[in-house]
Amino acid sequence: MSNLESNYPTRMDRISLSSMRYEGLLGATEEERLFPQMVEVDLVVEADLSAASSSDDLADTVDYGPLVKLTERIVEHGSFKLLEGLAGALAAAVLEASPAISAVTVRVRKLAVPMDVSMDHAEVEIRRERATGN
Q1: Among 110, 117, 121, 133, which one carries the catalytic annotation?
Q2: pLDDT digits (tens, 9 = 90+) for 35-46
Q3: Domains of the chain and any CATH numbers
Q4: Digit-coded pLDDT (tens) for 43-90
């Protein structure tokens, strides 16, 4: 650890993956789930990145490439009635993906909302932390 880094308290750092777009089966009704819809996902992963910031080595960080593939697989090969269900599945999978991840915030946006109103999207945001003391 550099002398500069030792002067700061330890806190969780973040890796953000924003506006990943996939087509998935999502909707409260069977009719909505007949055809894939565009879904946008953000992941904010919390982890201690101090080793990676010192070493500049991929082995010392959370590699986000597998997280992108994981997100794609869950969205494109799953079927969910609710944004909450999709967000929960993503959060659980991300926490399982790496023991280095202490928490994750997932935002899921449905870009085409079947309502008679003009809106950009409907969005759900959840945050899950790894259980401590295990």
Answers
A1: 110
A2: 999 999 999 999
A3: 3-129 (3.30.1130.10)
A4: 999 999 999 999 999 999 999 999 999 999 999 999 999 999 999 999
What's the gap between Cα 13 and its chain centre?
15
* pTM summary value: 0.86
* Two tokens, residue 37: 């819809």
Residue 110 annotated in active site: yes
